[in-house]
């Protein structure tokens, strides 16, 4: 299928695209369709010099500000220098750990075959699970590494006077450096690798070298990883039948074909994140949330975001709201001929949908009958390890990098997310593909992950500063139009989903919606991570979830108490969502047609559309 590389000449409003009168939006959301110019157009020569220098440095630092890192290190080092008591404590800990390791070494020497340990890895650390690690001398190696890792954690935390953000950065950096020297990363110190190398006469290393060269070649040519070519959008990904029924310069709106004789009259509009392609919610036939919902008797619409480039540098959050969410709400409601709509937002799309819902509620727009937020944050005070990269110094550096090119590149985002889970995404790959000489089989979720999108300069800067850095939405300072919006204005019932191992939107952060809202909230905590926990179709093995509803007048329960009091249920939370939506929908009716030509929404092309192919 041909790939679309540019669709920049598309009309920028519904009226121009489909020929239907443009419905007037609530005042706060009725913003200009064309993007607004920002400081890029007024940059002085001196400012351009500064920005250009920082942008050039960013190419060699993967977008990380050396000044921000130096400031964090200086804060830690100077406060540690001024804390003789803390240094004495660290000396005592080092002595105790050395004595502990010596006793363990003596025990191992006098008790061959013993499997006792003096320190256990963290629950999420799977590097030393093999039985071979319990044999001498490898047990001594990895126990020494873990003790050293524990000591450095003590050395980088708990120092009075160091800001929390700087402490987190230093602890994170120390952990990353230590992981480089983990005994699991080297042939001679990893018993599994050594055994494989001896058994295969070193051919695993030959294959690993070939894998490394192939990956480096693909990376240099900006090609997708090995095996991704087996997954093609429209062939075995994003295959749910449907039509693109609306298009503007920022979105294509897909309406999916019904699979039941009767459907609920209220359509579902899904707002995915724009950091990746939309089809994570329509992967293969067996794990497509879209297909599942249509099979449950719902009419489903999905936004497919345009992949921005340098021409789109001045698109902002208000454009994503007006051209994205609000245009889609109007189109879905008009085509389905319904006064009400169920809205679902995932990740960044969920945050954007929350802002839109708050503004609509503020202005008396009651079209949203329910609101479902999947791994989406509205309060960013506990936004996980991504906060490590969010301060004024780092954001200025990142903005200058985006200023130079007009967007945040996909490779620059990928590096940050890989660092957050370096053991899972970097070192495990090195061991398996380059030292073991094996290839990790490509799956649909991995193929989707290798198909990212760019982020416009203005929008990403606004998102990071207003939400991550200043937490404006949670604190009532996020303005649409000339007035702020508040989550507490939302009255539609909310279905809120968090995932247990989310490194992007930690579930404690997602749960904070309960502190901001004044409506009934059904909170679901599901197994898995940010992506795999959401793509959790019925029948998927080893899945469980917890679910409980907090009525708007009920007392607040903190996350730990909520988890302790809520029983775990085996299976997929998708079924719970379908039941929840059905209970808040009217009696089934005949399905609406695909598009509504007489209302200006004629079908434009088959799903998955054209924007999804932009590279």
Protein model, in words:
There is one protein chain. By secondary structure, the protein is α/β, with parallel strands linked by helices. It has three domains: 48-184, no CATH class; 185-223 and 410-453, no CATH class; 242-381 and 471-613, Rossmann fold. The chain contains 20 helices and 15 strands. It has helices at 14-18, 45-61, 66-81, 84-110, 138-156, 164-180, 191-199, 203-220, 289-295, 317-336, 348-362, 392-405, 410-420, 422-435, 444-449, 457-469, 507-511, 513-516, 559-565, 573-583; strands at 242-247, 251-256, 268-271, 300-305, 341-346, 368-374, 407-408, 455-456, 479-480, 483-484, 494-499, 521-526, 544-550, 568-570, 605-606. It has an eleven-stranded mixed β-sheet, sandwiched between helices. Strand 5, helix 11 and strand 6 form a beta-alpha-beta unit. Helix 4 (84-110) runs antiparallel to helix 5. Keywords: Acyltransferase, Hydrolase, Transferase. Residues 1-25 are annotated as: Disordered. GO terms for molecular function: acyltransferase activity; hydrolase activity. Residues 47-86, 124-293 form the Poly-beta-hydroxybutyrate polymerase N-terminal domain. Residues 1-20 have a biased composition (Polar residues).
């Amino acid at each position: 299928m041909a790939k679309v590389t540019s669709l920049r000449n598309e009309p920028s409003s519904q009226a121009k695209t489909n020929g239907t009168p443009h419905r007037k939006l609530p005042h706060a959301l009725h913003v200009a369709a064309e993007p607004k110019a920002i400081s890029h157009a007024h940059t002085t020569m001196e400012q351009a010099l500064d920005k250009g220098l920082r942008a050039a440095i960013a190419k060699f630092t993967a977008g990380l500000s050396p000044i921000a890192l130096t400031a964090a290190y200086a804060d830690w080092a100077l406060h540690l220098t001024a804390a003789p008591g803390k240094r004495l404590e660290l000396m005592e800990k080092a002595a105790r750990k050395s004595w502990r390791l010596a006793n363990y070494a003596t025990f191992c020497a006098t008790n061959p075959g013993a499997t006792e340990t003096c320190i256990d890895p963290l629950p999420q650390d799977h590097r030393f699970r093999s039985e071979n690690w319990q044999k001498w001398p490898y047990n001594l190696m990895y126990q020494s590494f873990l003790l050293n890792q524990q000591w450095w954690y003590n050395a980088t935390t708990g120092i009075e006077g160091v800001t929390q953000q700087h402490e987190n950065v230093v602890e994170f950096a120390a952990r990353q450096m230590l992981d480089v020297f983990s005994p699991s990363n080297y042939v001679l110190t990893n018993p599994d690798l050594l055994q494989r190398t001896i058994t295969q006469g070193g051919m695993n290393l030959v294959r690993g070298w070939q894998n490394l060269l192939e990956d480096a070649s693909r990376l240099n040519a900006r090609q997708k990883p090995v095996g991704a070519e087996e997954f093609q959008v429209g062939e075995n990904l994003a295959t749910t039948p449907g039509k693109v029924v609306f298009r503007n310069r920022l979105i294509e709106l897909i309406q999916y074909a019904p699979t039941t004789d009767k459907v609920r009259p209220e359509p579902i509009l899904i707002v995915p994140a724009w950091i990746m392609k939309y089809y994570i919610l329509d992967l293969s036939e067996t794990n497509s949330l879209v297909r599942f919902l249509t099979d449950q008797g719902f009419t489903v619409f999905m936004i497919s975001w345009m992949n921005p480039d340098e021409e789109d540098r001045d698109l902002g959050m208000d454009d994503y709201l007006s051209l994205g969410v609000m245009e889609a709400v109007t189109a879905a409601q008009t085509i389905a001929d319904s006064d009400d709509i169920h809205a679902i937002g995932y990740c960044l799309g969920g945050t954007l949908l929350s802002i839109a819902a708050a503004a609509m509620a503020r202005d008396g727009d009651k079209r949203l009958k329910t609101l479902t937020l999947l791994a989406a944050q509205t309060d960013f005070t506990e936004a996980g390890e991504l906060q490590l990269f969010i301060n004024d110094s780092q954001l200025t550096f990142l903005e200058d990098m985006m200023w130079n090119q007009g967007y945040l590149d996909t490779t620059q985002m990928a590096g940050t997310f890989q660092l957050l889970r370096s053991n899972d995404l970097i070192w495990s790959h090195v061991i398996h593909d380059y030292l073991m000489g094996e290839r990790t089989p490509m799956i649909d979720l991995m193929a989707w992950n290798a198909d990212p999108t760019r982020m416009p300069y203005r929008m990403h800067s606004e998102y990071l500063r207003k939400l991550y850095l200043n937490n404006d939405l949670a604190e009532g300072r996020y303005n649409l139009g000339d007035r702020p919006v508040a989550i507490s204005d939302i009255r539609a019932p909310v279905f809120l989903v968090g995932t247990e191992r989310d490194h992007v939107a930690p579930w404690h952060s997602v749960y904070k919606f309960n502190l901001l809202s004044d409506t009934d909230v059904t909170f679901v905590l599901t197994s898995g991570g940010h992506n795999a926990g959401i793509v959790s179709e019925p029948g998927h093995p080893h899945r469980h979830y917890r679910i409980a509803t907090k009525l708007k007048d009920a007392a607040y329960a903190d996350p730990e108490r909520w988890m302790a009091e809520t029983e775990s249920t085996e299976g997929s939370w998708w079924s719970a969502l379908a039941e929840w939506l059905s209970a808040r929908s009217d009696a089934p009716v005949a399905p609406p047609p695909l598009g509504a030509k007489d209302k200006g929404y004629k079908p434009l092309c088959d799903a998955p559309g054209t924007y999804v192919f932009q590279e």
